[in-house]
Amino acid sequence: MDNHLKIDWAEAWRVHHAGRKTPGDSDYWNGRAKQFSTHAGMSPYARKFIAKLGLKGGETIFDMGAGGGTLAIPLAQMGHTVVAADFSSGMLNTLAAAADALELTTISTLRLSWEDDWFNGSFLIDPTGKLPKGPLREKQFDVAIASRSTIVADLEDAFAKLTRIAKRKVAVTMATEFSPKRFDALKVAIGQHPNEHDDFIYGLGLLLQQGKYPTLSYIDSRKTDAFVSRAAAIDYYTQLVGEMTPEQTARLAAYLDEHLIFEASTESPEKSSADVRFMPWVHPEVSVENPEQGPNNSDHDRAGDNKHTHEQDHTHERYMLDTQRLVRWAFITWNPGID
User: Fold this and answer.
1) What is the average per-residue pLDDT within 107-131?
2) Considering only CA atoms, which of 101, 39, 32, 89 is closest in space to residue 69?
3) How much is the pLDDT for 132?
4) Which of 226, 238, 254, 309 registers the highest number of CB atoms within 10 A of its CB?
């Protein structure tokens, strides 16, 4: 452990982050917001996250990187008071509309980025009109969470802000080696080396170095990719693997020809989603966290509008990969009161 603590984990993260593809700016997520929905029920991921959170009755929660409301909506439904923060106004508007439709009165939205000055700014915007304007306050919330949203340049600063704002607990989820974006079989098939996404190692190292003594557990699910067309599958995996040579592009097409299975379903696509944050079939990639629970789109999938339905017989076409992948998120908590 002593050798690990000698590493400058904050700087190591900056180097690690500099070499990765970022998930998009606010304009990108504003454009995607209309394809997100919070009307599909609680996802297996959200259910596991909330169970691990160990909340007390009626707590105040700050959800940073809330997006369309994967956690904020079910937490408000459970009676907690939630401030859902995100840098995308489009996402916040989507979340606010869902909260109004569900007649939730204990959830507010806040336009905020990791890079903003949380505690001295006067820029805070609340589309719902429920939150007073002004800076956030130290120890304002019982619990602060950041679910799959810590892909930031300065992880040390992000963790420090969560620690300052929370009274009882901070909880984040970070990618492990079993990231949704890791697909070793495909990479090998097209002649590329698998990429690593062990983000949580940096988070743990940073917290230990600060004397926070975090706790670690995991949220596991099975991911099956499904698409509304073969072209959508090619588009998604092209984004996933990055730059390819013409030979690798041909190998990708051949791999999909071998492993994509056509399926026609009579189930309504609007009723088949398992993720509270997404409505599948609106955009190409659909990942199933649990086959018994239905489709669930991953956080950073590229949007599209390919949709195939048969109005006469009410069937819906999709192309599913014939293999499942393990997706494992590191669930990290720490006590913000320990200095």
Assistant:
1) 77
2) 39
3) 66
4) 226
Task: Identify whether residues 235 and 185 lie together within a single domain.
Answer: no
Find, among 182, 223, 234, the residue nearest to 21 by Cα. Answer: 182
- Kindly report the CATH number assigned to the domain that includes residue 197: 3.40.50.150
Q: What are phi and psi of 217, to 5 degrees?
A: -145, -175
* Distance (Å, whole) CA 168 – CA 142: 5
In a domain, 339, yes or no: no
Are 287 and 298 in contact, with CB atoms under 8 Å apart? yes
Give the pLDDT confidence of 291-325 residue by residue, as tens digits: 323 333 334 332 233 333 333 444 567 888 998 88
Question: Distance between CA 263 and CA 228 in Å, rounded?
Answer: 10
* 284 and 254 fall within a common domain: yes
Helices and strands, number each (H, E), in the chain: 11, 12
Q: Looking at the structure, tell me whether residues 19 and 106 fall in a common domain.
A: yes
Give pLDDT, residue 257: 92
- The answer to the question of residue 186 being in a domain is yes
- Identity of the residue numbered 64: M
Would the pTM of this model clear 0.85, i.e. be above it? no
Same-domain status, 6 and 136:
yes
Domain range for 250 is: 223-325
Q: Name the band, by pLDDT with cuts 50, 70 and 90, for residue 126.
A: low
Distances (CA, A) of 260 to 74, 208, 232, 257: 34, 44, 12, 6
